[in-house]
Amino acid sequence: MQDIILFGMQGSGKGTQARILAEKFAYKIFETGGQLRKLASEDSPLGQKVKEITTAGKLVPNEIVMEIVENFLQNLPENETAIFDGIPRSESQRASLEAEFAKVGRRPLAVYISLTREEALTRLLGRKTCAGCGKIFGAKDNSAAFEKCPVCGGELKIRADDTAEAIETRLDVYEKETVPAIEKYREENRLVEIDGTQSVAEVTAAIAAKLAN
Ligand SMILES: [Zn+2]
Q1: Distance in Å, CA 87 to ligand 1 centroid
Q2: pTM, entire model
């Protein structure tokens, strides 16, 4: 199996697919936010530095993110593979990420779960989160029309950062910053594009079929 760099606009179900694929094929997941939180809880000099930066609400500089990637890759046994979720976010970050992969002799496959901007907007605008168990209900999910969570009975709320304006801004950033990195992988014939309008199970199956090749 090959390492995977998973791309997808917000609303594409990228995080869900990362979890399903990890479970199905025993991938490790590299998710920047999670790695930063883990590091910040450690008593190492780098951990303390990350803690300072994130506590201040500042963006962690790319050099530190790359240090974390390097550390992760060096501790990843040769016979194991990983999914990178939410990284790279830009073409320059893609270049530094590729340099880290090259150091350890790995060449990941880029998987892009594509969605039109309109579809992403529709999905994100209808999204509700349970205040009780944290489960997210999508616009196409009948449950999203409920006021109470069908799982735990908690209150269903639209997230504060899911206003149309905030969503548009996040999609703009994605198109401007992240799409050039995706296009670079397409140029290098290392990109697999999957139709993200399919069901979760269909998307998983489509990705799995590409991995088997
Ligand atoms: Zn709930």
Answers
A1: 29
A2: 0.84
Q: How do residues 78-105 score in pLDDT, each as one tens digit?
A: 999 999 999 999 999 999 999 999 999 9
Structural element, H or E, at residue 93: helix 91-103
CATH for 4-116+174-212, options being 3.30.70.120, 3.40.50.300, 2.30.180.10, 3.40.50.1000: 3.40.50.300
CA 66–ligand 1 middle distance (angstroms): 36
Q: How far is the CA of 157 from the centre of ligand 1 (A)?
A: 11
Q: Beta strand 28-31 with 82-85: parallel, antiparallel or unpaired?
A: parallel
Separation of CA 208 and ligand 1 centre (Å)? 30
Task: Locate 33 and state its tokens.
Answer: 């936010």
User: Which sequence spans correspond to the domains of the chain?
Assistant: 4-116+174-212
